[in-house]
Known about the structure:
Number of helices of chain B: 13
CATH architecture of the largest domain in chain A: 3-Layer(aba) Sandwich
Oligomer: heterodimer
Distance between the termini of chain A: 46 Å
Number of domains of chain B: 1
Number of helices of chain A: 16
CATH topology of chain B: TIM Barrel
Mean pLDDT of chain B: 94
Radius of gyration of chain B: 17 Å
Number of strands of chain B: 9
Helix content of chain B: 40-55%
Strand content of chain A: 15-25%
Radius of gyration of chain A: 19 Å
Largest sheet of chain B: 9 strands, parallel
Shape of chain B: globular
Number of domains of chain A: 2
Low-confidence stretches of chain A: none
Strand order of the largest sheet of chain B: 5-4-3-2-1-9-8-7-6
Strand content of chain B: 5-15%
Amino acid sequence: MSAAARIWPDATGRFGPYGGRYVPETLMAPLEELERGFAASRADAAFARRLDDLLHNFAGRPTPLQLAERLTAKLGGPKIYLKREDLLHTGAHKINNCLGQGLLAERMGKRRVIAETGAGQHGVATATVAARLGLECVVYMGTEDMERQRLNVSRMRLLGAEVVGVDAGSRTLKDAISEAMRDWVTNVRTTYYLLGSALGPHPYPLMVREFHKVIGIEAREQILRAEGRLPDLLVACVGGGSNAIGLFHAFIGDATVRLLGVEAGGRGHALGEHAARLAGAAGYEGGRPGVLHGAFTYILQTAEGQISTTHSVSAGLDYAAVGPEHAWLAGEGRAEYTAADDGAAIDAARTLARTEGIIPALESAHALAELIRRAPEMPREQVVILNLSGRGDKDMDILARYL
Amino acid sequence: MSQTTSSAASESAPTRIGRRFAELRPAGELGLVAYLTAGDPSLEASREIVLAAVEAGADVVELGVPFSDPIADGPVIQRASERALRAGTTLSGVLDLVADLRRTSQVPLVLFSYFNPILQMGLETFARRAVAAGADGVLATDLTPEEAGEYRRVLRGAGLDTIFLAAPTTPEERIERVAQASSGFLYLISRTGVTGQRDTLPEDLGALVERVRRATMLPLAVGFGIARPEHVRALVGQVDAAVVGSALVAEVGRAASGADAAKAVAALARSLKSAGVRAARP
């Protein structure tokens, strides 16, 4: 398992059967150019130094691994540590990937970057990096998401990005990605598509994981220092799956460390009511392997292969496909995937606010909800790390309704 | 999915597509490939619209299978796909439409789809049903030769042409790979971008055509942005056919009824086809 885990993806971008590159012909040569550009950047010591400097002095790495003492005491189960990605500049883990890909865009001579965004965190991080590097920036966002994440729309505009509303389909992340791909296929010679999750055609799932794996590398060192041993369980929310793969990756070879991904259970188990692609065993309908936005992976779809609309209170998890590496980890049984519903996520956000003085993003609150459910049944001597992937400022309009 | 070669299949008898292009070449006239979104506004209406386009001179018909997330399409075909899906159109229904059309027409028919609906039906089932219905070829917009090993093996084995695309961004060594994977014809994308009508043809189209011509003897059909008779006239002698999609689909979208749509599509198809014939025989 551990050896096999480290070689994925293969040269064709496959994680076992998942992944690959299913795109219009116009994008094939640009994806090959991107793959070469990424490989060259990895061999470039100056690139690594510059990224490292920005991660430390601009984004605020390393992030703390905080023992959540009052939450641990309240639940009466394992010792809970929070990986505080919410403390990063712009308020979520997304900046790790944006700095990496932003420098790559610059290195490849592309002066215009485009991005999609759901909750707005990736859009804000992209706009931030574009401003920092002096790049032109256009962000596509579903109009439904623009409404529920208004604060982030204003932030992007203040940072100088153009925010383009997408009024198609479910008017959420799926439609924003489709529109960003249409822009890319049109302006491909001058434009860098800064994809925000571990999704899409090869090499995106690989690149995004590589730029986020710093989360797990830090957490592994921090927990060894604090506890003198590896954790028993890692918990993270999974939309596309970038924060989860970022935390999991450094531990995949550690057979004793269990990995738990939490998807959005939305408001019901029927297709269209949730965004749980891999949690079919928990009764969520419609998740099957298929092709969307460039990759073969688990997708919520109808019997005829039309992509389903999804629902989640959390815009960042409200998406029909999951990153291909998660599909592979699920298939191998290396990671477990389940879902938490809208109500549980809201309750979890309130619990964390009142026990630890931290308002989490609604995305991260899904991971927290599942941990809150399980912790009382777990042995006290166990150690858990939860990825607190983002902060909840952007969600205050929604959270305020439940005060 | 790894590469497979299918030399046996590629040497098998030509489909209606190959036969039609073989007739067009010596005549020196430009073929008209008409794209229409199947099920827009209904499958019954599509039948009449397709037959009207054929009557007006369309040499090959591409039946677009509507998909929820058409990333390669511009607004006109996006809206048409939405209308077709709202009308309940499925891949299975489109295959029934093919069978229905075959009762009255021998026009070459290409199924033009995103990959996922085909994948969900299952490659073997899809190929068997497509052949039984009377389809001649398949083009999957988001499937390139690299990911198409099994797809090509199954479809070509069943006697269907597999049409792939070349784009302005496709380097020469890839053009050869695309051509080797293709049968029936090669679809040349005229410009980077999504489908949709444009005012002019791209200036560098001639050079692009020349590059592709060097790589393959397959008939060449050029599409994306071809909307007007003058575009068609400019292509005569350069390529074998012009693909017109959004301009025809826009007529369907504007029409008040299926019958009006058939009339409007026929009128445009007739003017496009005659531009290709007149220019060939001045």
